[in-house]
Design brief:
Chain B: Pfam families: BPD_transp_1. Chain B: It comes from Kutzneria chonburiensis. Chain B: Belongs to the binding-protein-dependent transport system permease family. Chain B: This is Carbohydrate ABC transporter permease. Chain B: It is a multi-pass membrane protein. The structure holds two protein chains of two kinds. In chain A, helix 2 runs antiparallel to helix 8 and helix 6 crosses helix 8. Chain A has eleven helices and two strands. Chain A is mostly helical. Chain B contains twelve helices and no strands. Helices cover 74% and strands 0% of the residues of chain B. Chain B is mainly α. The two termini of chain B are 38 Å apart. Chain B is globular and about 70 Å long. Classes of the chains: A mainly alpha, B mainly alpha. At the A-B interface, helix 1, helix 2, helix 3, helix 4 and helix 6 of A face helix 1, helix 3, helix 4, helix 5 and helix 6 of B.
């Protein structure tokens, strides 16, 4: 195991830093290059990818968080038939993200898709689901919600179920209404779980690749940071610049994660 | 009234969540987009998929090879590793655990480029085994957590009794302890299988020979129309073929799946 982790994880990590300060074409010899590769961070294409990724991350995290929380509230109580509902909502989590993207590519682009049928039935014209930055973002967020809502629902549900029922009882006796109970009891106690879900969602969205690579191919300004890394490496064939972007991305992610872990710990107290 | 509200909402959501899958299943056996075909039912989409590129069977076998390598390496190393973490005090134990944790903190998409170079150096680029090993490493942190917890949950007396009865350490591990940690092993194997079966970026980058593509990459090529226009019928059949094993495995092993999620040690 040590050998595996060493070879396929630690060495690449060091190699990445080394590559980032070398001119490193896909084919041919490499040569020291100083910090020139880091000019990739000022590239307008890269900056646009950063902006789009940030936008996508915020929208996904908010939408997914709200829907998953609603679902968790719906299925948290054990009653007849709730198992079946949980299973169905959770089922998409078993399907790979690439398969999901290909599935929805069919839904978004074919004329025979029920989605387009529905839109035409209610009298709207043809919608080009992936044809502009806005629609592509919305369509992708809808798809991601379908794929991940059950996943986050389960995490939040576990958090909800670990709250002591006595506290709800006490709130009821004190005359708290439904909303008050939600704001004063449920949400504060659920904060560590909510924070965990947020860390997962933020990291996942910041590194988004499959969904946009497959649905739009990065067209209409929907290239993400990882798509930009892919382009630098395998289309521009400049691995040094790709490594520089990777190093920067990793640094940002570590800062974000450490900050969030701190937050969780403080809230957990 | 409240109960009825739950059932109405639950049913509506269930339909909404099942609809995309049902539609794909339907579209995959509906021959409308077949060349020269009528508006009928049939398996023509699947037939064209069988002959696509290097053939569906090649891609399926490739995907299975990668999954078998990833799952077996993950299960073997995390079972032994989990046992060692709990029972064997050895030097560098904590350091090793920390490095494994680091794998969790560093998203692998950021190290794909150097990995690509490295695999070239050690002769594992464009290799299904190499890809399987990379995917195994990604599963190690979760697996190690799972197996460490599983071994911790077993009473130490169990092993001691086996040793007193004349078993060697490996004998005790094999005959007595394995049964105890089996649920953990199934969970690790399940997650490792789903992750490697569905992986897209790593095979996209590491596999350059078309005959070595895994199913997701082959389907992506079908969709991006690298061999002419997009064949939507075959694409939908492909989605069914790639998603079906996952859905089936999930339905059978649901219990373990939920266990893995709720153990709280999952990476996103």
């Amino acid at each position: 195991m040590a050998v595996l982790v060493g070879t396929l994880f630690v060495v690449p990590l060091l190699l990445m830093v080394w590559m980032s300060v070398n001119h490193w074409p896909l084919l041919g010899a490499s040569a020291p290059n100083g910090v020139a590769n880091y000019s990739a961070l000022g590239d307008p294409l890269f900056l646009r990818a950063v902006w789009f990724t940030a936008k996508y991350t915020v929208v996904t995290t908010v939408v997914l968080g709200l829907i998953a929380f609603g679902l968790a509230l719906l299925v948290q109580r054990n009653r007849r038939g709730v198992g079946a509902v949980r299973t169905v909502l959770f089922l998409p989590s078993a399907v790979g993200l690439a398969s999901t993207s290909l599935l929805f590519y069919g839904l978004f682009t074919t004329d025979s898709s029920p989605l387009n049928g529905l839109v035409q039935a209610i009298g709207l014209g043809r919608v080009d689901w992936l044809g502009s930055t806005g629609t592509a973002l919305g369509s992708t967020v809808a798809m991601i919600t379908w794929r991940f809502a059950g996943f986050y629902m389960l995490i939040l549900m576990t958090g909800l179920q670990s709250i002591d029922p006595v506290l709800y009882e006490a709130a009821r006796i004190d005359g708290a209404g439904r909303w008050q109970t939600l704001w004063r009891v449920t949400l504060p106690l659920l904060r560590p779980t909510l924070a965990l879900a947020m860390v997962l969602s933020l990291t996942g969205s910041l590194l988004a690749f499959d969904q946009f690579f497959i649905l739009t191919g990065g067209r209409h300004d929907t290239a993400t940071v990882v798509i930009d890394i892919y382009r630098e490496a395998f289309l521009s064939q400049d691995l040094g610049r790709a490594a520089a972007v990777s190093v920067a991305t990793l640094a940002v992610l570590i800062v974000v994660n450490v900050a969030q872990l701190r937050l969780i710990r403080r809230e957990g107290r | 009234m409240k109960t009825r509200g739950f059932y109405l909402t639950g049913a509506a959501l269930a339909v909404l969540f099942l609809l995309p899958m049902v539609w794909t299943l339907y579209a995959s056996v509906h021959g409308r987009e077949a060349a020269g075909g009528g508006d009928g039912w049939g398996l023509s989409n699947y037939q064209r998929l069988l002959d696509y590129g290097s053939g569906l069977s090649t891609y399926l076998v490739n995907t299975v090879v990668v999954a078998v390598v990833a799952v077996s390496v993950t299960v073997l190393t995390t079972t032994l590793g989990g046992y060692a973490m709990v029972r064997l005090p050895f030097r560098g134990r904590n350091a090793l655990f920390l490095v494994t944790l680091a794998v969790l903190m560093v998203p692998y998409t950021t190290i794909l480029v150097p990995l690509y170079i490295l695999l070239g150096w050690i002769g594992l680029q464009n290799s299904l085994v190499g890809l399987g090993l990379v995917l195994a490493v990604l599963q190690l942190p979760f697996g190690l957590f799972m197996m460490r917890n599983s071994f911790e949950a077993l009473p130490a007396e169990l092993e001691e009794a086996a040793l007193v009865d004349g078993c060697t350490i490996t004998g005790a591990l094999r005959r007595v302890l394995l049964r105890g940690v089996l649920p953990g092993i199934v969970t690790v194997a399940l997650f490792s299988f789903l992750a490697s079966w569905n992986e897209f970026v790593a095979p996209l980058i590491f596999l350059t020979d078309g005959a070595k593509f895994t199913l997701p990459v082959a389907l992506f090529n079908l969709q991006s129309g690298s061999l002419g226009s997009v064949d939507f019928g075959a694409l939908q059949a492909g989605v069914v073929v790639s998603a079906l094993p996952c859905v089936a495995v999930f339905l059978v092993l649901q219990r373990y799946y939920v266990r893995g999620f709720t153990s709280g040690a999952l990476k996103g």
